[in-house]
Amino acid sequence: MSEFNVAIVGTGGIYRLAHGPAWRRVPRARVIATCDIVAERAEAAFTRVEDLLERDGIDLVDICTPSDPHAPLTTLALAAGKHVICEKPMALTPTDGLRMIQAAREAKRHLYIGHTRRFDTRWAQMKAEIAAGRIGEPVAVRRTERCWGAFPRGDWHWERARSGGVMVDLGIHVADLFAWFFDAEPTEVYAKALAVREEARETGCFDFGLIQLGFPGGRWGSMEVSWAHPKEYAPFYSTTEVIGTRGKLALSDRHASPMTVITAGAIGVPQYSPLLSSFPETFVDELGHFLDCIAGTASPRSTPAQALTAVRAIAAAFESAASGQPVSLDGGAPC
Q: Which of 152, 169, 187, 217 falls 20 to 30 Å from 162 in CA-CA distance?
């Protein structure tokens, strides 16, 4: 297929910020229709997904809605014979995520979940350094993702039933990143969660979380995810450290500092500047990669099963935060 006709479901924030501009830069793609429940935002006048899917010529659907309808919209589009790329999270529950995988299998269509960290140059380079053995075997990863003032009061992100709060919005990215770096599924989860800001306390939606994921062989990943930090921390920043048996990788966005590689017998030398990475390029690469997967010229960098692993990890984090106890994930022994 030389050109793909794309339909967009959801033309709010992530579409305007990332997906819309990215699709315009993917040469083989043409957005032919959009759908949104807010009529004035639906450029092709569709406010019902069912009507959109009846349009002829649609090859794939890009789902950019709030998190809670991801599963039903995806299964609907797959049943209509469309390939689907869906923004993260895959779903809010493992059960819904599994239904999405089954729907793709039954429809014999491609399903891709937008875990963009795998396409961001910064973390892709960290993964390459790990794969090359620069720091030996990775044994621990620490990561923070923090932002301030991300969403106004009343926004859907503050509704836990719609967004899952910060542990889903940011934590799902980090859980996937850890599994990618370790090339393994987590076996155990321990978490603490808080509602710090007034907007969070009003709705009972967690805006701060500490989550530790255990992996086979005693390896672990520790994350801090937050919407609660003061504005002095800037709109968004993150830090990442990967500890290996023979060295360490470190990357911080806070002061635009470069990635550093530290190995035995060598000082830390900057290897990479975040200025080389741009937010739009990540989405352009991801969407183009999905087209390659449909065309059969590439293997998925992230599979639906891997996306489901992240959903399962965060679901276990909620369970752990509620009980105060570690939660063992099925299929793996506790660390």
A: 187
